[in-house]
Amino acid sequence: MSTKNEVIKKLREDIAEYSKRSYMRHLVSGTGGNISVKVPDSALVLITPTGISLAEIEPDMNLLVDFEGNILENPLGFNPSKETSFHLVVYRIRPDVGAVAHLHPPYATAFSNKGETLPLLTINSRIALKDVPCIECALPGSRELCDFVKEGIMKFKSVNAFLMKEHGILTLGPDLKSAFYTADLVEDTAKIALFTEILEVSKKG
Ligand SMILES: [Zn+2]
Fold this sequence. Notes:
- By secondary structure, the chain is an alpha+beta fold.
- It has a single domain, classed as L-fuculose-1-phosphate Aldolase (3-Layer(aba) Sandwich), CATH 3.40.225.
- 42% of the residues lie in helices and 16% in strands.
- It has six helices and eight strands.
- Strands 4-3-2-1-5-8-7-6 form an eight-stranded mixed sheet, sandwiched between helices.
- Strand 3 and strand 4 form a beta hairpin.
- Helix 1 runs parallel beside helix 6.
- The longest helix is centred in the last third of the chain and has 29 residues, at 176-204.
- The N and C termini lie far apart (64 Å).
- The structure holds zinc ion (ZN).
- Zinc ion binds next to loops.
- Zinc ion (ZN) binds next to loops.
């Protein structure tokens, strides 16, 4: 049986891996985005630091915080993601959630600018995502944005993917792998919706 420290060490490696994969899949650019994972059967969360590209995240850069945002472990002295508060809101409201990804994929973000639910034009996206509602826009890191996320999570209790207006996406899952693949699917679903719209316009025109 692994000790809690061994579990945390493995999750530090996993969060670094999925951060890099998010960047490589173009789900985020520059130093944007943040990813977190809950330590199972605890009220502890590992989260990526602020100001570092997800492409460069190494295991020990991630911070261990409690549900109130108190920093418990910070081996390399980074500051936590400025969106830590909305990640923690998700874990507090949804005990089934084990990982949260907030990313800025371009196609899904373009759809978020409409302020509407993402069109699910494939059978697979309808089965896997069911609904991708849009959360209102507010300044990154603000209390207001955290409140909008809280509102969305409370209103759509079984939804695991959200657009964030003029900003990006938020995906949830039982683990990092699931939150990552949901984000990947949301972005490809947005891409398909965009090309479908273009094809329809060109057919008419
Ligand atoms: Zn963001």
